[in-house]
Design a protein that fits this description.
single chain; 301 residues; alpha/beta
């Protein structure tokens, strides 16, 4: 027996064909997608399997798609490895993935969370459409240098640090001109910039009024105290008060993701190994950069 953490991916993990193996091999996964289609009012599985790809990558589709795929992978894992569940002492999800973590921990019900995630995706897509913007991964550059980059690039437009992922991998969000300037500055400092295929500057004030719309959606759902500690993206801490959780989910839209800090705090609290559940293997890779000694296996969607 060891202390296990379940980790759930966020936006960007989606891919065409996601969920195919699960629904073909596990009736539980197929029933979950059927339920999701009823809630959403469209055939999510068809988009995941057949595209078009640009539709799957749109924020209003990719967010519910990743959420449902992750929950499907979780339900299959519960069936195949029931002895693993009593070992889980923590959970976390990257941005959108925090909703999946909250469902696993019993703080949110699947149907309620999916409705909120659908509204979250719509609101963030609308905010992105209102202000042309994007995100850039800044690789192989330390934080002090990157902070200087942000300060210099801000003369070209609004720009912020949006995701603290792991050492040597930090994400910037901002207006296109500022991001273009940042890319040049990162390269000049020996770093490697990579523009991300996202609709806008997530986790910044450019996402307003998506936070207000999300707050309204969250008022219509019940949030319970988690049965397993859930590490928040906003402050890298766990919370048991439902009102605090609701507030943090709203704040998360505009504030940077403290993923590296969350993982370090979680490991300090006694987690010995992790399981990444859902599409992709990004979180396992990030964890290796944070602590190479921690095992993290993947349960793909």
């Amino acid at each position: 027996m060891s202390n296990v953490a379940f980790l759930f991916p966020g936006q960007g993990a989606q891919y065409l064909g996601m969920g195919k193996n699960l629904v073909e091999s596990h009736p539980t996964a197929k029933r979950l997608y059927d339920h999701a289609n009823e809630i959403l009012g469209f055939d999510l599985l068809d988009i995941c399997l057949n595209g078009p790809e640009e539709r799957l990558h749109a924020t209003d589709i990719s967010q519910p798609a990743i959420f449902v795929a992750s929950i499907a992978a979780l339900e299959v894992l519960k069936e195949s490895e029931p002895d693993l569940l009593p070992q889980v002492t923590a959970t976390a999800g990257l941005s959108l993935g925090e909703y999946t973590a909250l469902v696993f921990a019993g703080a949110l019900q699947f149907a309620d969370a999916l409705r909120v995630v659908q509204e979250r995706g719509r609101a963030m897509q609308a905010a992105a459409n209102a202000t042309p913007s994007g995100m850039v991964s800044a690789l192989i550059i330390d934080l002090p240098n990157l902070q200087e980059v942000v300060q210099e690039a801000s003369s070209a437009g609004r720009i912020w640090i949006a995701n603290y992922l792991c050492p040597g991998n930090t994400v910037l969000s901002g207006e296109h001109a500022a991001l273009d300037a940042a890319c040049e500055l990162i390269t000049a400092r020996g770093g490697s910039p990579k523009k991300l295929s996202v609709a806008g500057a997530f986790h910044t004030e450019l996402m307003k009024p998506a936070d207000d719309q999300l707050a309204q959606a969250l008022l219509n759902v019940t949030i319970s105290a988690p049965t397993v500690p859930v590490w928040s993206n906003v402050d890298a801490r766990t919370h048991s008060d439902p009102n605090e959780i609701r507030d943090l989910l709203v704040r998360q839209v505009l504030q940077p993701v403290q993923w590296e800090q969350s993982m370090r705090a979680m490991l300090d609290a006694g987690v010995e190994r992790c399981v990444e559940i859902g599409p992709g293997k990004v979180l396992a890779g990030l964890l290796k950069r944070i602590n190479r000694k921690i095992e993290c296996r993947s349960c793909p969607a």
